[in-house]
Amino acid sequence: MQFSLENSRPLALVLDLQELFTSADGPLKNVAAASLIENVNGLVKTLRDKRLPIVYSSYVLADDLSDAGLLKDNPLVKQGYFCAGSRWMEWDSRLHTRDSDIFISRNRPSAFRGDGLPDILKSLDIDVLLLCGLSVNNAVSSTARDAFARDIPTVVINDCTGAAPWEHHLDIYFEILDDWSARVMTSEELLRMI
Questions:
Q1: Is pLDDT above 80 for 115?
Q2: Cα 31 versus chain centre, distance
Q3: Which of 6, 27, 173, 192 sits CB 3.0–4.6 Å from 136 for a disulfide?
């Protein structure tokens, strides 16, 4: 997917860098997240310096699992790991978030489901999404496709986007996104363009 970033009004959207998904000691044992979080922190710092808004969107379910849908029988969901009251739903402590950042949540993979991303984009007059986080095959792809369906150009920043521990084909996921739904580039390439 090709589009220009010249004169754009972008917003950085960071998905699901929560303890459940990023902790090497957690239930999903993500031993690869440390370098991803370091990359995200570096990118976010630079984007803040450029005065771009940063939104963190977390995947979280109600404590009674009334909104779990098709995941209601998943063992991790049934054990409460995804519940709002679980410590595993907290943002990874290695992230350098700020009070000025915007925090939203949702109960489905796409960030367009949940509490207000479309309203945030409209109120800030945003015309491009800069997307990163976890996981490329789930939340990142779902959000990129929903943005495409809404005619919102989206950049997926591949060195700031990771996979779940069981996803082994990052290059294929990025290639699929780049073919149709989003523009995939490194943070270095992105920063040269905005």
A1: no
A2: 18
A3: 173
